[in-house]
Design brief:
Helices cover 33% and strands 26% of the residues. By secondary structure, the protein is of the alpha/beta class. It folds into 2 domains: 68 residues, Arc Repressor Mutant, subunit A (Orthogonal Bundle), CATH 1.10.10; 195 residues, Rossmann fold, CATH 3.40.50. Helix 1 packs across helix 3. The protein is globular and about 65 Å long. The mean pLDDT is 92.
Length: 273
């Protein structure tokens, strides 16, 4: 790469780091990329680190030694997360979201890339210190959230299917009981989709009683995998007991009145930490 002015180099280095989160990058990579001395690169990284931390964009970790380098961990500030919650509550509490039977329409929110990316960054912040190999979700609504989270953690995504597909090869299938409807359903995961003894982060869009998430937990036992965390966009408070105890939620749906169209949304457990 041609030699750049320092201002241009800072911009390019910042972009390079943003697109490679949780990846150890040796200083020699930057030195060779920009035809610059390591001392100059270190000074540039110090500037980027300061801006990242001051603006609440994340942490830039430096590892010393021959095998060292820098690693960027995206994070979201408390102030920014509160702004996201305000946005979520404003959208969720719109009366026209109430569907017959007291259900809440949320699909449009999961189709907003800007909002989904913000939620994904929140999950990436909450689980940044966990040893993770993959992000898992069940088809279909949770898929955008899983990919957004995985992009900030630099991890692959594994999707649990509602049925076994020929294109997935041999698979493990289990029956599970939906905590809300008490209906028996099936979920399936191809054996090639997940390595045994993987560390998994489960992400889902909505949790009522937690039957679907518990089903994924049970399915993962067949792979001898470890669930390192569970992230939920919206949890329902209108149940006596959740099947899952340890989880991080962004918002908590406390009530939906089909008659008055009033919806009440409170902060989720993410804001209790």
């Amino acid at each position: 790469m041609k030699k750049l002015k320092r201002s241009a180099r800072l911009v390019e280095m910042t972009q390079y780091l943003l697109f490679r989160p949780h990846t150890l990058i040796p200083l020699t990579v930057f030195a060779e990329r920009y035809a610059s001395a390591k001392s100059s690169i270190s000074e540039d990284l110090a500037i980027i680190k300061e801006v990242f931390e001051d603006e609440g964009l994340g942490d830039l970790h430096t590892l010393a030694g021959a095998a060292g380098g820098v690693k960027f961990a995206p994070k979201i500030s408390e102030a920014a997360s509160l702004d996201i919650l305000k946005e979520i509550r404003h959208q969720l509490e719109q009366p026209d979201r109430v569907l017959p039977g007291g259900y809440l329409y949320m699909s449009d929110m999961l189709g907003q890339p800007n909002l989904v990316n913000k939620i994904g960054k929140m999950f990436a912040t909450a689980f940044a210190d966990k040893p993770l190999d993959v992000v898992m979700t069940v088809e279909t609504k949770g898929i955008p959230l899983a990919y957004a989270t995985a992009s900030f953690l630099n991890l692959p995504v594994v999707i649990v299917r509602r049925d076994n597909r020929v294109t997935e090869g041999s698979a493990v299938s289990i029956n599970y009981v939906s905590g809300s409807t008490k209906r028996i359903s099936t979920m399936s995961l191809g054996r090639r989709a997940l390595k045994e003894q993987s560390n998994v982060l489960i992400v889902d869009d909505y949790m009522r009683a937690g039957g679907t998430i518990q089903g994924m937990v049970d399915l993962l036992q067949e792979f001898r995998a470890t669930v390192q965390g569970v992230g939920v966009f919206v949890e329902s408070a209108e149940v006596d007991e959740h099947l899952i105890d340890d989880y991080v939620s962004v918002a908590k749906l406390t009530s939906v009145d089909p008659k008055t169209k009033q919806i009440s949304v409170l902060p989720g457990s993410y804001y209790n930490g």
